[in-house]
């Protein structure tokens, strides 16, 4: 349940390696999260509307997104390099590239996991080793 956030959905959506596979899964949660992230990260209202319109073209692989070169590049380049290439091919006017680059450049952290592990190690010591599973989970 920790990966069901808008930023994770947008990261999934903006990753061209995933989007150019045959079994891509863009359900309502992915699209809703992506639109929420675009709303937050776009700088102006016009940029937001342009990016939302561009989402459909990217999803349906129309125009610049539909060529064989872009499909091949999606498997060969990192997602950031792919989006930079899209922006170059549209002469620096792709409204979706700014949002995609901001989403894909987010750093990851294992601190929530570390917090859980440290809590577990405090509870599960040699003295308390005989706790039952139900009691330990509480």
UniProtKB/TrEMBL annotation:
HAT C-terminal dimerisation domain mapped to chain residues: 78-135
Superkingdom of this protein's organism: Eukaryota
GO MF, any single term: protein dimerization activity
Residue ranges of the TM segments: none
Stretches of the chain forming a coiled coil according to its record: none
Protein name: HAT C-terminal dimerisation domain-containing protein
